Amino acid sequence: MTVVEYRTIPEAHLDRALDLHYLVFLEKDAEGELRKLHQEILERCDLVGAYEGEQLVGLLAAHPLMLSVPGGELRCAGVTFVSVAPTHRRRGVLSGMIGELMERCTARGVPLAALWVSEAGIYGRFGFEPATRSYTVEIDTDRPLALRIDPDERPLRLVSPDEAPELVGAAHGAARAGRAGRVARDDFWWRTQILRPEDEEDDDLSPPRVVVLGEADEPPAGYVIYRTQSDDEGRGKLHIGELEAESPAVAAALWRYVTSVDLVDQVRAWGRPLDDPLLRFSADRDQIGVVQEFPALWLRLVDVPGALAGRAWSAPVDVVLEVTDSGVARNAGRYRLVVAPDASPGGTGLSARVERTDAAPDLTFDVRELAACYLGDLDPAELVRAGLVTEHTAGAAAALGAASRTELLPHTTDEF
Question: Matching InterPro entries, A to Z (predicted)?
Answer without folding.
Answer: Acetyltransf_17, Acetyltransferase_Eis, Acyl_CoA_acyltransferase, Eis_dom, GNAT_dom, NAcTrfase_Eis, SCP2_sterol-bd_dom_sf
